[in-house]
Every structure is written in structure tokens, then in C-alpha cells.
Amino acid sequence: MNMKKLALTLLAGIILVTGMSARMAGGDNIATTEPLKDRSLEGVWSLQSARWGTSVFGEGKYKDVTVVKMYSYPRFSFAYFNEKTNTFVGAGGGTYQFDGKTLTEKIEYWSWGTPKYPLSVFKVQFSGEHYTQEGWDNGLLETWKKIK
Length: 148
Hints:
Elements: H1 3-24, E1 43-52, E2 55-56, E3 65-72, E4 75-82, E5 87-98, E6 102-110, E7 119-127, E8 130-135, E9 140-146
Antiparallel strand pairs: 1-2, 1-3, 1-9, 3-4, 4-5, 5-6, 6-7, 7-8, 8-9
């Protein structure tokens, strides 16, 4: 599956899940009173590498998985898709704020039960078309590439 088709498929799923989440919560969790401080994350990103505790992206249950993340203030969404089996693995999202160095994400929906960190603060660094986020007491390290 080419990247454009994959991104469109994942985004359609993200939009569906996001819309369902907003309706279930009465829609009032979407509005924000604070403007976005830095727009650098706005857009669609593809996960290039990651470590979550002892789990590594591209290995074990994350083998053949593609992850796409979208920021459209005040919302963010992400979806996991297994390209080999052509199956949707899961998704999550919520609201976010970014000031150019610190990313704060509040998880409002999550495919895997209750998130361990429903409110996460990450240190973010940019390098060309990539950004790296680090958090969870050094238990998370992700590198993303901008695709749109």
C-alpha cells in the first residue's frame, strides 16, 4: 500500500473515531480558550522510530506496523495500522498544546483500555523534517517525519 493511500485510510479512521469521541463527550471537550503557542507540529506525521519502555517500534507486536499522527489544534489523533495484514491496530487522541519546546497531550480516547499517562508532557526537538519527543520519565522516545 502506498504512503498516500495508507495516510488517507488512517486519517479516515482517525476522523471517524474522533467524531465518535466528541459526540460521546457531548462535543464540549473540543473547544479551547487558549490559542496555540507554536504551530510547528500542525500537520500529518509518520513514526520513524520509537522506544516505549522495553518495547521497540518495528519489533515484536510492532513489526510491520505504521503509525500516523495528526495535529490540528486543539486536537491530535494517531492510528496504528499493520501493513502486512492490512488491519487497523488501534488509535487514540485528544487535545494538545505546544510552545515550541514542550508538548502537552491530554488523551481523551484510546483503543487499549485506560492509558498509563492520560496527561503527558514531552520535550520536543526538531531536525529538518523530523521531530523527536521524549517523556514518561525517559520511558518514551519517538522520532516522527512530516508527511503533510
